[in-house]
Each structure stands twice: as structure tokens, then as C-alpha cells.
Design brief:
The chain is of the alpha/beta class. It folds into two domains: 188 residues, no CATH class; 185 residues, Rossmann fold. Helix content is 21%, strand content 23%. The protein contains eight helices and 16 strands. Strand 4, helix 3 and strand 5 form a beta-alpha-beta unit. Helix 2 packs across helix 3 and helix 2 packs across helix 4. The longest helix has 20 residues. Flavin-adenine dinucleotide binds next to strand 1, helix 3 and strand 12.
């Protein structure tokens, strides 16, 4: 039987588990729990310092008032801004690209210069091509040398995106449209060609009622030093996983994302419970290369070029210019509201047999966060606001890898000869707003 036919929602799951068994789950009352379902069998993560293969750093382009998506004039040209996606640039880009196309269609012109070759730039370029525009991308750097390639990544449409007190109804409407359109597009890209997958995410916790923060390996395992805004100040920075500054739906209205609570004996983690949610995972290096290929295949051109001032853009022949420069707009368009949120990921030797994400609290209190990709076991997920450094922080590497070593050493290995539990696409498609808690 498919394991998802057992239970689909956390609350129901938990109720069913408690009612169905004579033995209570009872852990909170100190009784012995009797597992009702066969235990999840997960391949062991081999975390150690000598398995480190690289550490990458990326700066998320954050604005307290959220992304900029609007059309302006630059002399005779139409200038469409599309930047400031913070921790959501892999998640919202396809939908934002449609909104960009609508601004472009209103001009009556057909030739477009897209500035920037990250996820927002490439997705906007593809949406424009799909609508018959002739598109050239101009960019100082191209994949793999973009922030987008440094992402985790997954469908995390709200991470560090906006301050609630700066939202406007117009911005909310753009956000919701971009999120819905992108979610639909990413579902169509699932498979090896684009490196987009449904993947189980486990949050090891002692609190079965813990809401949210799942779906991304940055999800918190409970209260601790990293809980909070997820935007630590300097001094080492905070790990992702606390309350996001983008609680775009109040928790009581947020649907559970096919949340399953696994009780004692049903999972291998060193906690009473493990909360399993489906994540829509993106392998950034496969995905970005595929977007570049598609863009070129549809007749697009890429020119390596850096622009220092808006006047430089006037030398372009295209009457429409789309600004997808991310943090580059801090200088190019003098947008001083932009602030980096530094991210840092450490990759260990890849383990193809590990096909899940997991996070939990290590015994020393550190947050262990693991995301399995074909290019490595990705550990950690820093969110350090205001830190412009592209240098890996050695203390963060030490802390993240040690937390992973300590946590995964306590995870029970699969039973000898047991079939490993595979990640599967969800039986019922989670709604887009159920991802509003996912961290990246
Ligand atoms: C550790 C980490 C984890 C993340 N995880 C996720 C996740 O799970 N899900 C998610 O949705 N997002 C995630 N993100 C966020 C995501 O990576 C960013 O939102 C996204 O990459 C921003 O894209 P961008 O186009 O703004 O920047 P980039 O990808 O850097 O692209 C900017 C482009 O503009 C060009 N450019 C800039 N200035 C100029 C100039 N003056 N002249 C010419 N070209 C210029 C650059 O060369 C580049 O081509 C993560 C980020 C990090 C760092």
C-alpha cells in the first residue's frame, strides 16, 4: 500500500493514530507508545568534516517593502523592474515573468533586453519568448556564477521576502499571482530534465503540534537560539528556521501541507515525533543550465556585459529593458533599500541513496539542516542580514557541520534488509499557501 494512503493530514493523522490504537501514543503522558505503522526506513546521512567538498555563499536581495515589479520610463525606452526577491527568487520567478510580459505587451514593441541571468532574468526571458518577443539577455555573470546557483533550493515563496508592516494591497495581489503561477509552472517541470522533484521533508521534534517551518531543511525543530526573525544580525548570523518576516497568511488560515505526524517508533529520528511534509525541491545547477538551454534553443542571445549606470542602458537597441539585476540594483539604480541576507551552504559528498530532507536540533542545541541533492548533501542555511561578504564564514561551517554530525549520529539506521522509504509525489496536491511557511 502506498504510505500516503494511510494519512494525509497531520491533525487527522494524529487523531486517527490515537483513536485507532488501544495503546495510546501517550508519549506526552509518559506511557509507552506502540507504533501503528511500519517505521520509516531512511538511508543514513554520513556527516563528517572530511566529506566536505565545497562551501558556497550567496546574497539574497531583500527589500523590507518587498520585490519591485513595475514599469517605468527611461527616456524613450520602457524600463520594467523585476528584482528584490530575497529568499524566493527560485520560487516566484515564473509568475513574475508573466507579469513582466504583461507590462511589455502593453508597449506594442517586440524587442526586449533582459538585464541579468539569474532565475528572475531567465524566467522573465522565457515568458517573453513564449509570447513572441525577441529577447537578448545582457549580464555581468551567467550560471553557474549567479546567486540563483547558490540557492538551496525549493518552492519557498515567502522566505525573508517582505516586512508585514510594509505590504500594500497592490503588492499582495502581485505576490499572490506570482506565487500561484509559479507553483503551477514548477509542477510541470518535475523530473530529471529540470532537476525539480517532490521530496519528503522531515522535521524532528518533540512537539507534534508544531506548526509550519517545514518543507525546507531550514525548518526549525523547535524553539532555540535560531528561532526568531531568521535574519540574524552580524556576529555569526542566524540559521534559517524561525518565524519568517513574511507571514503572509495568519497561521490559523494556513492549510497544513499534507502534514503527517509520525509518532514514536514510526521514524528513526532521536525525537518523539517527526513531521513529514512534501517539499518541491529544485536542484539549482541542473535547473539553471536547463533554463539557459531553453532560452538559447528558442532563439535567445546572451551577451556578457556589465552596466554601471542607467545611462549605459541607453546604448542598447531594444526599446524595452527588463531589470533583473537583483542586488546589482543597489548600485545600478541606486536602490538603497536593498540589503543582502547572506546565505552559506556546505556540501558533503553526494549520497544518491538519501532522497529526503531533514532538520532537527542537535544535542548541543545547534540546528542540523540537511538537503540531499545530486551535487551533494547540503548542510546548513544561514540568513545573515546586512552581511555583504562573499567569503565563507569558517565558524558557520564548523557549527553547521558539527550539528549535522551530532544529530545524524543519533538517527537510527535502516533495519538490515529493509526497503528504504522513498519520497513520492503527494497524493493530494498541497495548495500554494500551504508553502507560505517554507524556509530557504
Ligand atoms: C543559501 C541560499 C538559499 C536559497 N534558497 C532558495 C530557495 O530555496 N528558494 C528560492 O526561491 N530562493 C532561494 N534563494 C534565493 C534566490 O537564490 C534568490 O532570490 C535569487 O537567486 C535572486 O536572483 P537574482 O536574479 O536577483 O540574482 P542573481 O541570480 O545573482 O542574478 C542577477 C543577475 O544580474 C546580473 N547583474 C547584476 N548587476 C549587473 C550589472 N550592473 N550589469 C549587468 N548585469 C548585472 C548578474 O550578473 C546576474 O546575472 C536562496 C538564496 C541563497 C543565498
Amino acid at each position: 500500500m502506498n504510505r500516503r494512503t494511510f494519512l494525509t493530514s497531520g491533525s487527522l493523522a494524529f487523531a486517527g493514530y490515537a483513536i485507532g490504537g488501544c495503546a495510546t501514543t501517550g508519549s506526552s503522558r509518559g506511557t509507552t507508545a506502540m507504533p501503528r505503522r511500519p517505521p520509516v526506513q531512511l538511508a543514513q546521512v554520513r556527516a563528517s568534516f572530511d566529506r566536505i567538498i565545497r562551501t558556497t555563499v550567496g546574497l539574497r536581495p531583500h527589500r523590507d517593502s518587498g520585490f519591485v515589479l513595475r514599469a517605468d520610463k527611461l527616456d524613450a525606452k520602457t524600463l520594467i523592474h523585476n528584482y528584490g526577491y530575497a529568499g524566493t527568487g527560485m520560487s516566484l520567478a515564473w509568475g513574475a515573468g508573466i507579469l513582466v510580459s504583461e507590462f511589455a505587451q502593453a508597449t506594442g514593441d517586440r524587442r526586449v533586453a533582459v538585464i541579468g541571468c539569474g532565475s528572475p532574468g531567465l524566467c522573465a526571458a522565457r515568458q517573453l519568448q513564449r509570447r513572441g518577443f525577441d529577447v537578448t539577455i545582457y549580464a555581468a555573470t551567467v550560471p553557474p556564477d549567479t546567486t540563483s546557483n547558490m540557492s538551496l533550493a525549493g518552492f519557498t515563496p515567502t522566505t525573508a521576502l517582505v516586512s508585514n508592516d510594509r505590504r500594500t494591497p497592490a503588492w499582495d495581489a502581485q505576490f499572490l499571482r506570482a506565487a500561484e503561477l509559479s507553483y503551477r509552472q514548477l509542477q510541470l517541470m518535475v523530473g530529471q530534465n529540470y532537476g525539480v522533484y517532490w521530496m519528503d521533508s522531515y522535521n524532528a521534534t518533540d512537539n507534534p503540534n508544531q506548526q509550519g517551518r517545514g518543507g525546507g531543511p531550514g525548518g526549525a525543530a523547535g524553539p532555540g537560539p535560531s528561532a526568531g526573525s531568521g535574519q540574524g544580525g552580524r556576529g555569526g548570523g542566524a540559521e534559517a528556521g524561525g518565524a519568517t518576516d513574511a507571514d503572509l497568511l495568519p497561521p490559523e488560515l494556513r492549510p497544513n501541507r499534507n502534514r503527517e505526524v509520525l509518532g514514536p517508533g514510526e521514524h528513526p529520528f532521536p525525537t518523539k515525533y517527526a513531521i513529514r511534509t512534501p517539499a518541491l525541491a529544485i536542484e539549482p545547477n541542473i535547473y539553471m543550465d536547463a533554463l539557459v538551454r531553453d532560452f538559447l534553443m528558442f532563439g535567445g542571445k546572451i551577451v556578457i556585459r556589465k552596466f554601471d549606470t542607467p545611462r549605459d542602458l541607453m546604448t542598447l537597441n531594444e526599446p524595452i529593458v527588463v531589470n533583473c539585476t537583483g542586488l546589482g540594483s543597489f548600485t545600478l539604480f541606486d536602490d538603497k533599500e536593498l540589503v543582502p541576507i547572506k546565505g552559506q551552504l556546505t556540501a558533503l559528498v553526494a549520497q544518491p541513496e538519501v532522497n529526503y530532507r531533514a532538520n532537527g536540533r542537535a544535542p548541543n542545541g545547534g540546528n542540523a539542516s540537511m538537503n540531499s541533492r545530486s551535487d551533494g548533501i547540503i548542510i546548513g542555511n544561514l540568513q545573515d542580514r546586512g552581511n555583504w561578504s562573499l567569503e565563507p564564514d569558517q565558524d558557520v561551517i564548523q557549527r553547521n557541520v558539527q550539528a549535522a554530525i551530532d544529530f545524524f549520529a543519533l538517527v537510527r539506521p535502516p533495519a538490515p534488509g529493509a526497503r528504504l522509504t522513498r519520497s513520492e509525489p503527494p497524493q493530494t496536491m498541497p495548495s500554494v499557501n500551504s508553502f507560505f511557511d517554507a524556509q530557504s
